[in-house]
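Second attempt. The first submission of THUMP domain-containing protein had a stray character pasted in from the spreadsheet, which I only caught after the job came back as garbage. Lesson logged: always re-copy from the clean sequence file. Corrected sequence (360 aa) follows.
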Amino acid sequence: MRVLATTTPGLEPVAADEVAALVGSDGERSARGRLRFETDPAGLARLNLYARTLNRTNVVLHDGTVDTLADVERAATGVEWTRYLRDGQAFAVRSSRHGEHPFGSPDVASAVGQAVVDGYRDATGHRLPVDLDDPDVTLRAWVREDRFTLAVDATGPSLHDRPWRTADHGATVRPTTAAALVRFAGHRPHETLCDPMAGSGTIPVEAALAARGRPVDPTRAYALADLTFLPDGLLDRVRADHRERAIVGRTCALDTDPECAAATRTNARAAGLGVDARVADATETPVDADRVVFDPPYGHRMDGGGLRRLYEGTFRSLDRGSWRSVVVLTTREDLVPWTPDERLPVRLGRLEAAALKFER
Ligand SMILES: C[S@@+](CC[C@H](N)C(=O)[O-])C[C@H]1O[C@@H](n2cnc3c(N)ncnc32)[C@H](O)[C@@H]1O
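This time the job returned cleanly.
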């Protein structure tokens, strides 16, 4: 089956690498933050249970070109809806549109919704309920320029919402983004990793969970459990096949703020992990770890001179440390004194940032 997965815009190559490792498929970036690939039901389940860099997976039902709303309607009518929905299942259509069109995204949603109701009724004589607030099945309809993709959500609420996050911090990085940075750094399960500006510990916690091969959220429900075209008991079978690693490398978290060190400990405890969280100044503490991954302050709460000194001091201190790779996520590349070996442009909400990798 064709799958369209979403990830942090810019980190598609890293997400594609994780997809390849988990299900053996080569992902192709189809738009910013989107990846397309083929997999089977077990692969779809494995990604939902263990992929740390993906936000959501969708099974593609139709993919083609459109000019008019009538083309959208025709494409949605062509889907055999009795394969994807069963009597009594309430559905919703979520739509988005990019480009110049003589119609809006609500028109797309209602054209698809009508095609589903009509197609299902013509085939079965029964009417499917629509529930926009709490549907059993969510259909996604995207129009991007002249491309129309219709898909069914296999995930439900975004995977970035991790159960271990019990202590927050004003400027946390998304766990899916953190996991992608760790992967970008080339972190292997037996290696050590340190975040010298760890805030509430998102990066070290995600690194430690990835090293163990823990499920992303052991207790959550997945939309794919309600999808009639997937085999019964799929998630349980895939879970039963999985083994966690017992022995992994150490992860450490430094921050000048004692409340951040405490937040990291709280989050690590909630994740069932031991993370070495300490109060330390990154400008004065040379780090000794295989991988160093961090997102320094972007400076919204600091004056320009303070931020420049922070970057200069941190890189000077990194220079004195021992490591194999450093990955920095920042909106202030201009303050980074080294030339990266690799660079990925990353979109963080409305901010344009970059993930910079340095190797020794
Ligand atoms: C953008 S936040 C990191 C957020 C973190 N990744 C998370 O998800 O919670 C940057 C952190 O750097 C810390 N920081 C600022 N200056 C520092 C320094 N000189 N040494 C260590 N940490 C510092 C701040 O206290 C803040 O927690």
